[in-house]
């Protein structure tokens, strides 16, 4: 089977590290699409599209524009059910496991079903875990949930394992877009050691040095948004 998820597993088995660029339809300048892709490093393997507040039309427009300039797989990373567009290839079907707000544990997922039933999107169940990135993140504000503190390693590990036991196919450790502190190496390596599914890490990663450190700690895929969007990534 040649699905995006199977391909992620194959790449990880070959010890390849994956890099996703997060594009937020709310701030992405469609007219600047071609320039954006010129700036991205060769290392990029996946494109994520989503934000906390975007709408479906804007998401679709962004995906269609990206498709003109890139052949990389496009995965939706939706803030809510209104952001689903079948112009993409796959969707990270997120459940905010660190939070206790039913809206982001099951309600939005239920709202997404009637839309998803009519798309060909590959659905990738993803356990989403918000870690304290040193300032209030948009995810925290919108979801009205608290992140897990960076020193609560056991809670993060157990939350990731609960996700795996629930059948999630990916675990995503998120410090929040523009985080002051990215997820620390200890959390990454201990979660990686505990779970058997791929580990994604994002939020506050702004340099090649940091990117390498996150890979070295055990992340299979790193997600970078702000630093590429603002062209401030330190090489
Ligand atoms: C946010 O993890 C992503 O969901 C990316 O964060 O914008 O800080 O790179 P940054």
CATH topology-level fold name: TIM Barrel
Name the ligand types: SN-glycerol-1-phosphate
Compute the CA-based radius of gyration.
16 Å
Strand order of the largest sheet: 1-2-3-4-5-6-7-8
Helix percent reads: 25-40%
Number of helices: 9
| Range of strand content | 15-25%
CATH architectural name:
Alpha-Beta Barrel
Q: What average pLDDT do the residues reach?
A: 96
Sheet bearing the most strands, described? 8 strands, parallel, barrel
CATH class: Alpha Beta
What structural class do helix, strand and pairing data support? alpha/beta
- How would you sum up the global shape? globular
- Ranges where pLDDT stays below 50 over 5 or more residues in a row are none
Count of DSSP E strands?
8
* Tally of domains: 1
In whole angstroms, the N-to-C terminal distance is 36 Å
- The H/E string reads HEHEHEEHEHHEHEHEH
Care to describe what's here?
This protein is an alpha/beta fold. The protein has one domain: FMN-linked oxidoreductases (TIM Barrel). Helices cover 38% and strands 18% of the residues. It is built from nine helices and eight strands. An eight-stranded parallel β-barrel has the order 1-2-3-4-5-6-7-8, surrounded by six helices. The chain is globular. The model has no long low-confidence stretch (mean pLDDT 96). The structure holds SN-glycerol-1-phosphate.
What's the topology here?
Elements lengths: L3 H10 L4 E6 L9 H7 L6 E4 L6 H14 L4 E3 L13 E7 L5 H15 L5 E9 L7 H6 L9 H13 L4 E5 L10 H10 L4 E4 L5 H10 L3 E4 L1 H4 L6
Helix pairs in contact: 6-7
């Amino acid at each position: 089977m040649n699905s995006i998820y199977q391909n992620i597993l194959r790449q990880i088995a070959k010890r390849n590290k994956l890099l996703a660029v997060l594009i937020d339809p709310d701030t992405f300048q469609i007219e600047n699409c071609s320039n954006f892709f010129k700036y991205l490093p060769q290392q990029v393997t996946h494109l994520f599209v989503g934000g906390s507040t975007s709408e479906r039309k804007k998401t679709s427009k962004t995906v269609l524009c990206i498709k003109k300039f890139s052949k990389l797989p496009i995965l939706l990373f939706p803030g809510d059910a209104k952001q689903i567009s079948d112009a993409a290839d796959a969707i990270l079907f997120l459940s905010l496991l660190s939070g206790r707000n039913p809206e982001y544990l099951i309600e939005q997922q239920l709202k997404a079903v009637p839309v998803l039933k009519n798309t060909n999107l590959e659905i990738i169940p993803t356990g989403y875990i918000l870690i304290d990135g040193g300032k209030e993140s948009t995810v925290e504000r919108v979801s009205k949930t608290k992140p897990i503190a960076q020193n609560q390693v056991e809670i993060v590990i157990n939350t990731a394992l609960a996700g795996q036991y629930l059948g999630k196919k990916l675990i995503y450790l998120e410090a929040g877009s523009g985080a002051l502190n990215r997820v620390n190496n200890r959390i990454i390596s201990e979660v990686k050691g505990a779970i058997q599914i791929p580990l994604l890490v994002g939020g506050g990663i702004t340099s090649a040095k940091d990117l390498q450190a996150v890979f070295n700690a055990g992340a299979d895929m790193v997600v970078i948004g702000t630093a590429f969007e603002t062209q401030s990534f330190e090489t």
